Amino acid sequence: MAKPPATPATQLLKARKVAFTARPYDYVDHGGTGRAASELGVDEHAVVKTLVFEDESGRPFLVLMHGDREVSLKELARQMGVKSVTPCAPEAAQRHTGYLVGGISPFATRKPLPVCLEKSILALPRVLVNAGRRGVLVEIEPRVFQELLSVTPVEAGR
């Protein structure tokens, strides 16, 4: 596969001198992290999905979660100290991040968004997260999330 084109996310990683490896794969609509993990020959637990949520006031935020786990909405809201959280509609997610659903990266979003990071992700040696384009992940050390993003560690996976 040819070298994937640069995205705002990969440009930010390069500018901040973050070591990363672009990992392109054959994207399929609704294939999710399972498809990416299978294509790349990695454990789905190490593929981090970037989810866009909003609280009851409509404030958007990101959640970084293991690919093989779901987010407990009740637990996430409790840990954030809000009444409720809901996933954003695809159009709203794209508007908030500037990325297409299926290609949303936590890096270089259209506007800076708060990020909730599942704590156990930090225990992994390397993770793969979307590079800002459908069909391309970047492999990085999880500490990069803490170094480049305003993260709140949470335990909201199930």
UniProtKB/TrEMBL annotation:
Determine if Protease is one of this entry's keywords.
Answer: no
Q: Which GO terms describe its molecular function?
A: aminoacyl-tRNA deacylase activity; lyase activity
Q: Extract the InterPro entries matched here.
A: Prolyl-tRNA_editing_YbaK/EbsC (IPR004369), YbaK/aa-tRNA-synt-asso_dom_sf (IPR036754), YbaK/aa-tRNA-synth-assoc-dom (IPR007214)
According to the record, the signal peptide region is: none
Q: What superkingdom heads the lineage?
A: Bacteria
Residue intervals of the YbaK/aminoacyl-tRNA synthetase-associated domain: 36-147
Under what name is this protein listed? Cys-tRNA(Pro)/Cys-tRNA(Cys) deacylase
User: What is the name of the gene encoding this protein?
Assistant: ybaK
